[in-house]
Write a structure and sequence with these properties.
Two copies of one chain form a homodimer. Chain A is an alpha/beta fold. In chain A, 36% of the residues lie in helices and 24% in strands. In chain A, the strands form four sheets. Chain A has a seven-stranded parallel β-sheet. Chain A has a three-stranded antiparallel β-sheet with strand order 1-3-2. Chain A has a three-stranded antiparallel β-sheet with strand order 10-11-13. In chain A, β4, α7 and β5 form a beta-alpha-beta unit. At the A-B interface, α1, β2, β3, α8 and β6 of A face β2, β3, α4, α5 and α6 of B. β6 of chain A pairs antiparallel with β7 of chain B. Chain B binds a DNA duplex (30 and 30 nucleotides) through α3.
DNA sequence: CAGAGTTTGTCGCAATCCCCACATCCGTGC
DNA sequence: GCACGGATGTGGGGATTGCGACAAACTCTG
């Protein structure tokens, strides 16, 4: 593979132990794995030295040791969205399947980033044609973009790795220039006050989407009912429809009493 | 290639190929790395068989190969089903290594999407701290975003799957609201007229970045000299510096005669 | 049933890695 | 100066892995 012959940035001078270990974890941010032999060449030290570094980092739990090198530890990498995407797959797939039935060719959708909505987008990319998706999630864009008949518009802003999407005032301002038929958004919790989530920046994006869409469908699994996050996204009346996987517990049925958010069970 | 040998659950003694590979990725959800030898023992097959499985998964980008095993992929890294990213890695890595030496902490960079610039961003994410990156590439954003000390601003627009980035008038308009120290851009070709590329929409993004940056560095491999694409991006004088991997052929040396674009060989 | 194609096993050698013991270098404090 | 501990380099034996080539077993199809 890529040799490092008298490497440019590496031969500056001898790095100390700390500097080497920092470089190793940095390298693992760019590449999923590193090899001891390659690092030794790059640092201009012996493989034994690198081996000791890697072993030390491994003991600290910063990296995960492999035969011949090291890899990113599963937890340190993307505990956030990645882990969340792998739980409740069954339920979320049901929600997603149900949600696509409300979408028709020609629709313009706003979809916020999130684990549940990502299943929804995956189904959209498979089943539907001639729709436009406006989103702040690069994951959604990448998935939906594989379908050439789906037009994807990505919102700008500060990129937040944890959510794999853009956030900040730019997003809301950008969204205000568009108008959509529907907004499909997720939420961290759902009470009689309305949908809520844990982070203010997440809420602002969802709010902007709801504001600019003709109607709003909430995608939440049954575990979200009763959760109270930091901030309420919008009053209950602004939500047109709630799609979930199984009936909410009786104590939260009052949410749908007035029939204002329509309840759909996938 | 995409054949599923319809294995029912009756396979208790020996697992089929598909079942093994599924088990491997499942194993990787629990442990950050697996070893071929261990898997071979667990499955009751030869290490060669597991090696083939792992190699296959690695080619698909599902796992990342290590010496003696496999590791979880960084998810941000692999989605390069793009064959262009896998050629000239040697040359592009050299260019990227050279380019990072021109960047200092505190810099604000505009970087356009492209195969060559992606190597550059990867190095940036490893070696530098406290910089701001403004880009239209979701790949760049995902990679740079793993480094918490790098601020990433993503430009809006129509998402183009082929380029894994945003394009269209929105991009240029958005960029106009920022000001950067440097622009690092790639190009499909390079002649005495200046850098060029094959698609008008690509050119408009590059143009906007050059316009809004104090100086502009072009990252091109040696094969690009003499290529004439559809559209010239900007006159030669607007380019501050050209970084390439090996000296351009003599017939294209005139590009650098006036010393206006500085020539740097990585 | 035959034949083509796929999957897996076997074998051997070269390359690589691990581990251990010991030597060397260097800065620090006495 | 000198002892000392930490960090690093050296060298070799032993184990593991990678790779290519070939054969055996199996699957599918006509």
């Amino acid at each position: 593979m890529a040799r490092a012959p008298a490497d440019h940035g590496a031969m500056k001078r001898k790095l100390g132990k700390q500097a080497r270990q920092d470089r190793i974890v940095a390298e693992l941010r760019a590449n999923p794995t590193v090899r001891i032999s390659a690092l030794a060449r790059a640092f201009g030290v012996t493989t034994e030295t690198v081996r000791r570094d890697v072993d030390a980092l491994s003991r600290e739990g910063v990296v995960s040791r492999t035969y011949g090198g090291a890899a990113v530890t599963a937890l340190a990498h993307e505990p956030s969205l990645d882990e969340r995407a792998n739980i409740l797959v069954e339920e979320r797939t049901r929600i997603a399947n149900c949600a696509v039935s409300f979408v028709q060719p020609g629709d313009v959708l706003m979809i916020d980033s999130g684990a549940t909505t990502s299943h929804f987008v995956r189904r959209l990319a498979v089943e539907l044609k001639d729709i436009t998706i406006i989103t702040n999630s690069i994951g959604h864009a990448a998935v939906a973009g594989t379908n050439p008949s789906i037009k994807v518009i990505l919102a700008p802003g500060y990129y937040v790795a944890r959510e794999r999407g853009t956030y900040g005032p730019e997003v809301a301002e950008f969204l205000r220039r568009y108008r959509a038929n529907h907004a499909f958004i997720g939420a961290g919790g759902m009470t009689v006050e309305g949908p809520n989530d844990v982070s203010a920046e997440l809420c602002w994006v969802k709010r902007a989407m709801i504001e600019r869409a003709g109607s709003c469908t909430l995608l939440v699994d049954h575990g979200k009912f009763g959760n109270l996050g930091l901030e309420v996204i919008c009053p209950l009346e602004r939500v047109t429809r709630v799609i979930t996987d199984s009936p909410p517990p009786p104590e939260h049925q009052p949410i749908f009493l007035k029939g204002k958010p329509e309840l759909v069970i996938g």
